[in-house]
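We close this part of the discussion by returning to an individual protein. The sequence in question and its structure tokens are set out directly beneath this paragraph:
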Amino acid sequence: MSSPEVPDRPFASPESSTSSASPGDAADAAVPFARFVQLFTAVMLPIFLAAVDQTLLATATPAIARDLGDLRDSAWIAVGYLLASTIMAPLYGRLGDRYGRRDALVAALGLFAVGSLACAVSQGMWWLIAARVLQGLGGGGLMVMSQAMIGEVVPPRQRPRFQAYFGIVFVLASVTGPVAGGLVVARFSWRWLFLANLPLAAFAAWRVLVLPPSAKHAEPGQGHDLPGVLLFAAAAVLALLWLTLAGHRFAWLSLPSVGMAAVALLLGWALLRRERREAHPFLPVELLRLPAIAWTGVTVTLFAAAMFALVFFLPVYLQIGHATGAAHAGLLLLPLTAGLVLGSNLTGRLVARTGRPDLPPRWGLAVAAAALLALGLVPAGNLAVGALGALAGLGFGTVMPTSQLIIQSVAGRARLGAAAATVSLARSTGASVGTAVFGALVFGLASTADLQAALHGGSAAATAQVVHAFRIAFLCAAGLTVVAAWASTRAPRVEI
């Protein structure tokens, strides 16, 4: 039995706290817009920082590779950050529920700032990758705690209207990251992409500390499940290393490849076995037993794998395969941004009217799959990339707002941290695996000589080989999105 809960509505309206109101009425009372603005201005910047740093270096990667060397391992600039975020997301969810979500968010901002500084002073590719891992250890808590604080304040029926605002911030940050990265690299240095995080993180921490302390939901005997954390980290790192290295560093069926895959599977099996027996597990397995949450998690994982691979590698494809400048490649992602914003906004309005967050991803992901299929088949002129990017964004924009609504509604208020961590874990897992697999596929199909020649403006034959590799990868992303659309239809009916 859980301990008595602290009142969990720091921004509740005065009307909702009158003695005549029942607990259920108080939980559903309207949140004044002015008080929501106070929350929004506090957590908007952490959400922005968490999302933008997942994609910020997409257009900067070729410049970094020329400066630090080692283009083949450059995918780990993104994968390292995403992997660390993935590992930390469930831990932040548990810590936030136990010790208070506001304080956990401030701690995450501090760690994120330290990692950003380490990135800015990097002197080598693997130094930068290690610093990105450190940055991701903080970044993993930014989105989780921000989303949990939204659910803490806003009742379920009102969340579609407010969630659309946060969805717009997320998609804008995710896709304008490459645009900003391209402009900064074109005029300054890629190091400024990390130095800019320092004042932003400090300002965000100040705004968050203005909020009242969050409620604590500790249970007797609840620990941190350190063995579970370590097993999860080891299994995730080894699996991603295998996906990244197999096929071009060693053959898929070679002894190192089979050994890494076998050990990763063994660690994963040990993790699941432990978490099922643990009273207070690191992974939110009690939520994953609920069909609505489990299928939504699968949908988000597959969606993130396709979308983040597209966002990270499309600018690289345009620069290496089509000799597009960094700033121009970033600007070509603006139609994708517009589509994501429009899709998220329309989805929020639709769900607010119908109360059915389970429906929009079904058609949205089908539209995105069609756009990715065309991207792999149609010649990649500027007009085609822009139009197909807008169409893909429109479809992808239906997923994130609805997934948060479904999982938070089904999980309940006492488990908002674990619920937000579930979405973040699914998204980060998909993004890191998708980016790693996409990179492994491209770098496996194109030889090192072709990649280096294309990077430095070499022969037309080398460029054609690189373009062919990217097209195959886009077709694979389309197939993955089709599976995500199917998974979304398996989730049971959810009404809010």
